[in-house]
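Students often ask why inverse folding is considered easier than folding. One informal answer: many sequences map to the same fold, so there is more than one right answer. In these notes we will look at a single instance of the problem. The structure comes first.
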């Protein structure tokens, strides 16, 4: 401490002539605070490292995660190959990571009540997601899930969503066709994002957003603000100073605050428009879109379902309906370009299942792409699932332990530990998928040509247990329809065959810098 005091004094005297005393005192205090935090980490790490109470192996601190943040999912994969369960420490608790299916089942199902999202996760995510279903626990989560579950199970929603997917995908084909005619490079991730966003807005809220046309600046600003906010929120998990930055409204937190204002303005306007629409058309909540049911509930109980609560619910549906499907499809077309034989197998299956000829109008093919023909596409289903195995839309998912526990592998969990299961590393584990775990092989999902699913705890791309994704079949139907449309009309080729795609570290596995490729007609589209 004497040395620390001497250094602080020298720094203060050397720079005080250039800055105010108040500023210098603040600077010195921040330096002292940083040193204290660093020393505390060293002491805590040593104490935890020598502990013999059968805690998961300690592999580093939050600083390790920060250093490897830009490739964090691959970093976790390397560790998981050595330790199927491991942990990092922060000043207040341990973050435990599990890649063993038996532990995942314990967390998501067997001892579900002990592993809610927890206050730590909700505190980090709250500024963006609020009390939406992704961050909610307890009664709020059960209430949202009950209402959403009812809607997802109705035939009306299934039929309506299928017609919406078909309509918006036809628009996507026309958009790509324009680029082919002009011999332009297509950055496919962007139109996929816009197409899926248009679909979730129509199915979820009853509005035609039409971001795919690129003419609506308001919706484009919303999309940009949402993506940037999600990236900033995810970085909070390793940013020890995010609360300080939020308090002073500086750096990334200032950007987040600005983006959230854009998001809120957009969503509250949507809620008001929906309320006016329901009032003028005398809707009763039993119609086609999801949010009508929640808004009908809000009229019955306006205190419980305030506009703020509706805002959180709307954002959760947007995030689920847009990012997951579009990201998966982006990786899907990337691997099809890397494996041209697989691309041709998918295209052939689509042609045989629909009975369509390549010389076909978009509208004519749309009529032939029925539920029956989609159900015949087992190889396409397997290829999408293999994409989800290696490129899951949510690569890591965090919970929090409410009580002390012992995992099936014998490691102890303490109350307050963050507990995370890891779909991205799990998809690459040889002890789960065999020696060819790193190989993209759709055939692993087929038995005598028929798709066969795996346990959701071995393949947790859609979670498992009570919080399993309600929109799983909804997402598969949308992805299969988009994939079938595009591979029927076009062959795809990467602009740079030698370049390996990378992700942007955020909640969803977003491809960094998009997916630039060329599309070539399989046969000229009839007008």
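Output (designed amino acids):
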């Amino acid at each position: 401490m004497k040395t620390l005091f001497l250094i602080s004094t020298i720094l203060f005297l050397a720079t005080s002539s250039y800055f105010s005393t108040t500023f210098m005192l603040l600077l010195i205090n921040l330096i002292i605070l940083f040193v204290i935090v660093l020393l505390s980490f060293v002491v805590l790490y040593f104490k935890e490292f020598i502990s013999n109470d059968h805690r998961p192996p300690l592999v580093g601190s939050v600083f390790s995660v920060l250093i490897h943040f830009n490739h964090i999912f691959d970093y976790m994969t390397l560790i998981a190959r050595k330790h199927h369960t491991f942990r990092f420490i922060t000043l207040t608790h341990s973050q435990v990571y599990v890649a063993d299916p038996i532990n995942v089942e314990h967390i998501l199902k067997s001892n579900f009540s002990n592993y809610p999202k927890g206050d730590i996760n909700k505190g980090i995510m709250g500024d963006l997601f609020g009390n939406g279903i992704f961050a909610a626990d307890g009664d709020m989560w059960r209430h949202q899930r009950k209402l959403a579950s009812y809607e997802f199970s109705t035939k009306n929603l299934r039929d309506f969503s299928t017609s919406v997917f078909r309509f918006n995908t036809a628009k996507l084909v026309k958009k790509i066709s324009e680029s082919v005619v002009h011999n332009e490079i297509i950055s496919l991730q962007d139109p996929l994002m816009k197409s899926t966003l248009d679909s979730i807005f129509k199915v979820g809220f009853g509005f035609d957003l039409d971001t795919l046309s690129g003419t609506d600046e308001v919706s484009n600003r919303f999309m940009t603000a949402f993506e940037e906010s999600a990236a900033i929120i995810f970085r909070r998990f390793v940013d020890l100073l995010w609360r300080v930055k939020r308090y002073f409204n500086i750096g990334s937190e200032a950007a987040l605050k600005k983006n959230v204002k854009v998001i809120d303005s957009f969503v509250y306007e949507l809620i008001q428009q929906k309320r006016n629409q329901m009032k003028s058309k005398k809707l009763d909540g039993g119609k086609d879109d999801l949010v009508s049911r929640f808004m009908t509930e809000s009229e019955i109980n306006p205190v419980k379902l305030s506009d703020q609560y509706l805002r959180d619910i709307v954002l959760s549906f947007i995030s689920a309906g847009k990012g997951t499907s579009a990201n998966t499809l982006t990786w899907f077309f990337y691997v099809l370009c890397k494996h041209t034989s697989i691309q041709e197998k998918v295209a052939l299956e689509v042609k045989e299942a629909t009975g369509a000829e390549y010389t076909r109008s978009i509208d004519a093919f749309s009529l032939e792409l029925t539920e029956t023909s989609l159900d015949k596409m087992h190889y396409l289903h397997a290829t999408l699932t293999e994409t989800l195995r290696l490129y899951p839309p949510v690569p890591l998912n965090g919970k929090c332990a409410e009580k002390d526990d012992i995992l099936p592998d014998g490691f102890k969990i303490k109350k307050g530990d963050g507990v995370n299961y890891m779909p991205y590393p799990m998809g690459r584990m040889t002890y789960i998928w065999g020696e060819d775990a790193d190989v993209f092989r759709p055939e692993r999902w087929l038995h005598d040509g028929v798709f066969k699913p795996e346990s959701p705890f071995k393949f947790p791309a859609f979670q498992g247990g009570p919080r399993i994704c309600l929109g799983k079949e909804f997402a598969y139907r949308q992805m299969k329809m988009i994939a079938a449309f595009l591979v029927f009309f076009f062959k795809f080729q990467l602009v740079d065959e030698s370049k390996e795609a990378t992700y942007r570290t955020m909640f969803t596995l977003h491809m960094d810098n998009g997916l630039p490729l060329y599309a070539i007609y399989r046969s000229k589209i009839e007008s």
